[in-house]
Amino acid sequence: MPLLRFDVIEGRDKESLRRLLDVTHEVVVTSFQVPVRDRYQIVHQHPEHELIIEDTGLGFERSKDLVIISITSKTRTEEQKQSFYQRLVEALEAECGIKPTDVMISITENSNADWSFGLGEAQFLTGRL
After folding, report:
1. Phi, psi for residue 113 in degrees, rounded to 5
2. For residues 108 and 2, what is the distance between their CA atoms, to the nearest angstrom?
3. In which element (H, E) is residue 3 found?
4. HSE of 123 in the Cβ direction (CA atoms, 13 Å)?
5. How far is Cα 82 from Cα 76, in angstroms, rounded to an integer?
6. CA-based Rg of the chain, rounded to a whole angstrom?
7. DSSP string for 4-45
8. Active site residues
9. 47-98 tens-digit pLDDT
10. How many angstroms separate the CA atoms of 125 and 116, rounded?
11. Cα torsion at 35, 121, 3, 15 (round to 10°)?
12. Which of 53, 32, 56 shows the shortest CA–CA distance to 109?
């Protein structure tokens, strides 16, 4: 936890996708202080015509390198989120060549009762986590 879903335009090679996931995970670990093996990532690849992601009037253009990251997570502070956003776009640009204007992030928060990692238990509630 957190659970990350990546929506990208199809065509990235296996290594590029893996680097995107690895870099993002490194930033999640440092920004949200989660354990290294607290890694839940899902990639969805779409034909270019299936992703229409504009800029809400901010004036920048998106490219084929666009990545939308949807995160479901327990509550994080505004400072943690701001730091995460900044660290992530910097790391993705440096490590993957993805421009900051091609990264869109959305965080949806939930609570301890909203997670079961298996066995039909809410481990945050049972004390196993």
Report:
1. -70, -10
2. 10
3. strand 3-9
4. 8
5. 10
6. 16
7. EEEEEETT--HHHHHHHHHHHHHHHHHHHT--TT--EEEEEE
8. 2
9. 999 999 999 999 999 999 999 999 999 999 999 999 999 999 999 999 999 9
10. 9
11. 70
12. 32
